[in-house]
Each structure stands twice: as structure tokens, then as C-alpha cells.
Amino acid sequence: MKSMETARLTDQAEVKRFIAKLLQASPAAQTEVMVTEWDSALTRFANNGIHQNVAERDVSVRVRVVKDGKTGVASINQMNESAAADVLKRAIAIADLQSKGEVVPMPGPAKSQAVEAWSDATAAATPEERADFVEAICARARHAGLKAFGAFSTGSEQFAIANSLGVYHHHRSTEATINSVVMGEAGSGYADRGAIDVRELNKDEVADEVIDKAQRNQNAQPIEPGTYEVVLEEYAVAEMLEFMSYTGFSALAVEEDRSFMRLGERITGDAITIWDDGLDASGLPAPFDFEGVPKQRVDLIKKGVASGVVYDMMTATQEGRQSTGHGLPAPNTEGPYAVNLFMQPGSAAKPDLVSGIKRGIWVTRFWYVRIVHPKLSIITGMTRDGTFLIENGKVTRPVKDLRFTQSMLEALDGTVAAGKTTKLQIGEFIGASRVPAVHLKAFTFTS
Amino acid sequence: MKDLAEAALNAAQVKGAGYADVRLDEHVQQDIIVKNGQLAAVSDDASEGFGVRVLVDGAWGFAGSARLDKHEVEEVVDRAIRIARASARVRTAPVDLGPAVTSRGHYRTPLERDPFSVPLTEKVDLLLRADAAMGAVKGVSIREGSMEFLRQRKVFASTEGAFIEQELYESGAGIEATATSPDEVQNRSYPNSFGRHQGSGGYEYVVAMQLDRHGGRIAEEAVALLTAPQCPSGVKTLILDASQTALQIHESCGHPTELDRVFGTEAAYAGTSFMTPEKLNHLQYGSPQVTITADATTPTGLGTFGWDDEGVPAQQSFLIKEGLFVGYLTSRETASVLGQQSNGTMRADGWNRIPLIRMTNVSLQPGNSSLEQMIAETKDGVYMETNRSWSIDDKRLNFQFGTQLAYEILNGKRGRLVKNATYAGITPEFWNSCDAVAGRNEWSVWGLANCGKGQPPQTAHVAHGAAPARFQHVKVGILK
After folding, report:
1. pLDDT per residue over A303-349, tens digit each?
2. Residue from the list B79, B124, B268 with its beta carbon closest to the beta carbon of A55
3. What percent of chain B has pLDDT above 70?
């Protein structure tokens, strides 16, 4: 039975032949082919039992053609000869039916640095292994008189991109994630982990964290909204970083005057250094972007100073520079996107971040964050699954979840300390962040 | 397709499934974006595949694949069965689906003009005309217009004997103008935010929007917002336009009445609900002005279909009746827990996902007021229009929304334009403060094509009928 669960991805040489044939068949001046194939499974649990358990195998073949200064993009989820002919025909038809428009240039060949992001163990993970992992958490919760909820996923993917200018890149990756909420009668806790290799996910460690948090977070009492010193755990810091990337770290956002990034100026506290690095193996590495450009490290905020933004082919060409390898799949009007984020850790042990706080709030995670004011970097959202009062340097009791409305840059400007360890947070849809927990001087809770 | 469906169901039964269903799905989508006077993107995406859902030993398994051949069907069924057996190792109570569903039939979205037969040039011309109207206004820095067209052909078959074919169409379009200054980014969109106004139907749905007639107005509003004063802070009367009322219904009534959330099956992701079963028929959710229905037969609604993805026929049910909480959105499995029958809300966002309880067309029924009358009756208030930001807690109680446009209302008259408007509240307090809803002639159906739920994530297309509505004693103007 085990062999059936070995990742059922098409042989890499076959993918390369398929792409080559498609490029050869194209009558367009320039053609780009992107193939993404994945085999993934997810086991979901609630009330201490598995209630949803799914698997899928799919592929996306995406073709971009440039013909007479006109662009057409089409995709199909089959990888065979007739599908190739169909998707090419549709892309050409779109190009033929339109008047000349803006053409996003295709890159020429450049060597990308190989990064290892594959684990045979993850690719071969079975439903029984996922069930056993989940049962370990559920059993611990049951024993503690609590209920466990969550999802455990394992998946493998290969991604290849090529164009008629000679680009060909191929990368394969695996990913395993576990997230869990454990609930009691009057409160909940949370934990998650993500890794390339499923064997790095430790069920006891996850169970320890989520059950301890749930037990400590029972019978929370309300607290007056207002501005408090806070400790944000890595879950919350990573979410803040993702929103900073979404609103501010792209060259297009700066060009369109939508970003909070004022390059060369100090925009937040000098304890804050943030960069993007798709080649760092401690993140979720990918050696090239969705336009086939090798990824470069980009320093975004250096000691509080806005120092750089990420580029794709369009924004780089407009500014007469090289793409940093942050392009999204065509057609893309959203601009480049930083998806491999890192925040500089500090020197404090995470439990010591509360020292020196007379009255503050410990936040496990955020929930339903949305942008209120992009240029002032103001977001709103709720705390969730473990919000605690800090009194005289100690976490004392749980408090009811609070809504915050806060400028991210202003909050980070008041960074008192950052944890010396970092945690990898895998994004829900794309990319990952590696961040420390932080102690911030002021954070505004509005209700 | 029928052969593959039968092969899957036969294989599932032979291999030990007590129940199985199969969905075959073919999905085509065209997207067009015009930005700053240029055609910026046209794409044509196609996806097809099948998913098999099985019950073995009272536990669920599901597998799907894009490969539509009989060998793959065998493999996928094997995989679903193996997954279900693994689920059974960590099962709680065995799944009870209630009475068998044996629906058979065919449904096609009513439409006048197939959007895929409309020439690309006609669509692009309309977007370019709207773009030019926005571009004629000085101070607009970004102009964008988009259209999206979808066609989904799907087959549902089950071991209980159901066999359904559906052909669903959606058409959508929208424009947006953005103006910036050193401290501000202000945008105005038409007819709705989230990129587009979308409905079930053909190209006539897009033509009716008259995008080119509204480009100039929204561009002027975006520019004016740059220099408008901040929305005042305080507790005031709040009047919402129909589109923002629609989003308020979505977040604070649609989601908390999903019975799977109530039972905790979304707890680790989308959250739970404050509308727990002991509150059914007891909770005064809103004022007597508030009646909210779920209706999968509403014309042009994105939640309109013939049968849901469990084969249950489209139907209407009450969620809130004159303020009282009276019903949930249900599936076969969740309804049976309450001794009810499904009201047909299970939908998957493709062949590779299992169906979940999703809103259909969850609508606030029209009242007998009007926007004009509501403003005339208000001494100190704010009128807010078109969503800009939205956030609500995991139990769907504590919310904060922002809108693109707002006007002060003073002594019965519309006053100054104000920017960065926000309001916040607690769901039952808010809906109980509703003292007026506009009538049928101001009521319209608003599609939301970005409703997220589930792991792996799924995006549902849902809709809300709504009219302008008024709420008393609401906290407004929360910026920080």
C-alpha cells in the first residue's frame, strides 16, 4: 500500500519534453510555458475526531504568447498532446483578437541556484500516518478533558517554467503543516508547525503547546481596551509581516504611490530589519519566480530604514534595472510580491520578553486582519486563542479577545526586544515568513 | 461523463463504501483587465476533473484527480476508500446522512447572451470607455476595470440513485479609480468593491451596469476624498448603502448560521459561531425590521442553482424572522444531528474539493422606508457606501468595517463628504438597533465571489439581497 502514496508526479524529463514540444509548436514571436503539478492530502479533525480527509492530484499548464505586440494567456489542467494544442490555440486566439497593448518582457536565460526543498518522507506520507499524528493530539486533548480541532497536510509539487528565449528552470518541493486549536468549556489555545520534511513535525511538541495554552486560557475576563505594551508571539508577527509585504514591499506599490515605503528614510524602529530571501533553506525556498527569473535576496527594511523593494520583469524594465525574481504568474496586474520574508531576531529568550512590562498584553495570534489605511500601514483584527494579561513582568491571567486598530510601522517603532529564536510560519496560500516574537512598547486595542 | 460516474460509484460500492458520490466538473473562466487606458490582461483558464466522496465504517474519505480515464477512476476510488478507513480510526460518531436523496434532472442558468459568445473586442471596448471616463478627471492616478465570465458544467451522481447535470454561468464586471497624496490612498469602485459586481447570468448582466456612465463620477469622488476631512468619531446613527448592508449580512448572519461552524468543524480555521443550537427560536437576533432568508432560487444570485453538491434541491428558508433566530444553513450530515433535513447549501468550489455548507443568496428582506426618508429622519449620523475593509472575530460577534465613501448627516440633511470611515459593533446589538430598511425598489442582489472557508481553502460565490438600512447608536470613526 505504501507505494500508492509515493508522490505521483510526472517524471521531470517528461515534463521537459512536453514543454519543449509546446514551445516548438508555437507560432508566436515569444512563448512562455509554466507547468505546476501537485499531489496533496489533508486530514482535518474536530471534536477529537477526523471529520474531513481529502487528497487531490492536479496540474496546471499555463501558456503566455506575445505576437505582434499583443499578449494572450491561457491555461489547462491536462498535460498531454491535445491539451497542449488546445491551450496554445486559445492563447494565440486571445492575442489575435486584441489591439496592441502593454507587453510584459520575458527574461533571457540565467542560472538559478539549486535549493533543496524536497523530502521523500513527506512525499510518501500516508493517510494512516496522518491519522496517527492527529490521534496523538486528540488523545492528549481527550485525556485533559479538552477538544482538539485542526488540520494536518502533506504535499509534493513540481514547478517548471520555460520560454522561447532559452529559459528553463525546474524545482520540486514538499510541504507538511499541522495546525491545531484545542478548546475547553471556556477558552482555547493554538499551535502550528510547518516544514519541508514531515519528520520535523513533532506531535508531542504541538500537543504540549496547544494544550498548555488552552488550559491557561480558560475563563478569560474582559479588560478595558486601550494602548498597552504587548508581547506578540511569532504567529502574530508573521501575519503582520505578510500584510506589510502585501501593502508595501512591491516596486509597483511604490511606483503607484500606494506604499508606506519611503526609500532611504527611517520608517520604523532601528531594531527592525526585514528582508526577503527565496534561497535561504531555513525558509520555504524556491530558486526562481513565476516569470523564470532567479531569486535575489532583497533587504526591505534595514535598522528601521526603508532600503529596498522587490521587482518583477515589468517594474524592473520600467525603471531600467534587473528583476529581483519576485514576479507572479501572467497575466499579473498586481505587481511583484515578496513571499520569503525574514525578520532579524534579537537576544532575548522568548519567556523573558515579559520582563520589565508592568501592565501589558500577551498575544498568541491575530485573526481576520484587514488593511484600514495602506499608507499609514494601519490594520485591524482580533486577537485569538490565547490573550493574557502581563503584570509586573509575569503573565498572570487570560483576558477576553480584543480588537486592535494599529499602524504596523508605529508598533514596530516601539520594539523593546525581540526573541533570539525564530519560527517558520508557512503562509496560507503562498510563501513563508521566519520571525521572532517581539516586545512592543505600545499597541492600541479599540474594543 | 456518465460512464465515468457509474464506474466510480460501482468501484466504490465493490470496495466497501456504504455511500459514495462522484462529481465531474468542467470549468472555464475568462478574465479581462484594463488598466490606465491599456489592455493589461486577458486570460482563458480551463479545468476539469472528478472527485469521489465515500463513507466507509461511518467515516469520510475523498480523493480527486484531473485525469479523466477509467484507470484513474479506479486509483482515485482506492485512494478515497483508504483515506476513509484511516478516518475511521479516529472517528467520533458515525456519519448519519438522514433520508436518501434521489434527485434527477438538469439545470441551466437562465441567460440572454452567452458571455463566451461575445467578442473580446466588445468587452474590451466597454472597459476602455469606462477607463476614459475616469481618465478625464484630473488627479486620478490609477484606473482599473475588469470583467470575469465563468461556465461550469457539472455532473453529480450518488449510490442512492441521484443523477444531476447542471450548467452554471456567471458574468461580472467593475471599475475602480484611485487617487493618492503623500498621506492618503483613496479609491472608489463601481458597482461594488472586491474588483467586480458579479451575478449568475449572461453578458446582459454586465451591459446593465453601464460602466462607462459611472467612470467620471467615481473618479471625481476618489479625488475629492483626498482632501475630505476624516470621518468624525463617536456614537451616531449609521446608514449603510445596499452593498455594505450586503457585506454586513454576509459576515454577521451568513457565516454564523452555517451549521458546520456551529458544530465546530471549522473551529481551527474559519472559527465557530455564537449562534449555538440552544439559541434557535429563542435569540432575538435583530429588531422586528430584520428578516433574513437563504434562497438558492433568487434570480441573478451567485448562490442560485438547481441542486446543491449533495443533490438537494434549491430552496428558500428563513434564518431570521422579524428579528428572531429561526434557522440554519445546513447539510445532510449536520441537519440530521438536529433532526432536520438539509436545506441544500452544500457546495464545493471545484471537482478537487469536498462540498461544505456555503451561503446561497442570504438576503435581508426589504422594509418600507427609503434612503431619502432615513436621511431626513436622522439628526446626527453618517451615511457609508461601498466596502473598503472588513474584519470580524471567530465567533462572528465583534466586527469592524470601513467604507470607501461617507457623508455626515446633520439635521436630516446630507452634509460633508468624509474619508476613512469606519464603524464597529457587536452583532446582535447592531441588528437590534436596526430601525429602518429601504423598500423593494432600492433592494438589489449583490454577488460576493471571494468567500473563503475550509482547509484546503475554498472560495465560494455567494450573494445577498439588500437595501439601504439604518442603525442607531453605532460607534463610528475608529482609525486608531
Report:
1. 999 999 999 999 999 999 999 999 999 999 999 999 999 999 999 99
2. B79
3. 100
298-357 in chain A: CB under 8 A from chain B: 330-333
Buried b (16+ CB within 10 A) or exposed e, A42-74: bbbbbbbbbbbbbbbbbbbbbbbbbbeebbbbb
Judged by a CB distance cut-off of 8 A, whether residue A255 touches chain B is no
Q: List helix spans (H) across A124-277.
A: 127-143, 203-216, 234-248, 251-255
C-alpha cell at B64: 480527486
**Phi and psi at residue B60, to the nearest 5°:** -85, 145
Say what the pLDDT of residue B479 is: 74
Residue pair B245/B465 in contact by the 8 Å Cβ criterion: no
Selected residues 198-227 of chain B with any CB under 8 Å from a CB in chain A: none
- How many Cα atoms within 13 Å fall on the side-chain side of residue A401? 24
Q: What is the pLDDT of residues B248-268, one digit of tens each?
A: 999 999 999 999 999 999 999
Q: For A131, which of B89, B263, B267 is closest by C-beta distance? A: B89
Q: How confident is the model at residue B19 (pLDDT cuts 50, 70, 90)?
A: very high
Long-range contacts of A21-24 (CB under 8 A, 24+ apart): A21/A81, A21/A84, A22/A61, A22/A63, A22/A84, A22/A87, A22/A88, A23/A162, A23/A163, A23/A164
Residues of A in contact with B404 (CB under 8 A): none
User: Which domains does chain A possess?
Assistant: 2-213 (3.30.2290.10), 220-445 (no CATH)
Mean pLDDT score across all residues of chain A: 95
Q: What does the pLDDT average to over B118-126?
A: 95
- The verdict on A77 touching B (C-beta cutoff 8 Å) is yes
Percent of chain A with pLDDT over 90: 95
pTM: 0.96
Interface membership of A157 toward B (CB under 8 Å) = no
Pairwise CB contact (< 8 Å): B267 & A46: yes
Q: Which of A280, A341, A9 is nearest to A159 (CA)?
A: A9
Residues of B in contact with A58 (CB under 8 A): 47, 49, 64-66, 352
Distance from CA of B48 to the nearest CA of A (A): 7
Could you report the per-residue pLDDT of B263-286, keeping only the tens digit for each? Answer: 999 999 999 999 999 999 999 999
CA–CA distance, A90 with A336 (Å, rounded to integer):
26
Span A163-172, average pLDDT: 97
In the stretch 324-383 of chain B, residues with CB closer than 8 A to chain A read 352-354
Q: How far is B379 from chain A (nearest CA, A)?
A: 26
A34, A42, A56, A403, best to mutate vs chain B, most B CBs in 10 Å: A56
Rounded CA separation B462/B445 (Å): 10
DSSP B376: H
Q: What is the pLDDT of residues A393-440, one digit of tens each?
A: 999 999 999 999 999 999 999 999 999 999 999 987 778 999 999 999
Closest CB from A53, A56, A333 relative to B352: A56
Cis peptide before B299 (omega within 30 of 0): no
Q: Which domains does chain B have, with CATH numbers?
A: 2-226 (3.30.2290.10), 234-476 (no CATH)
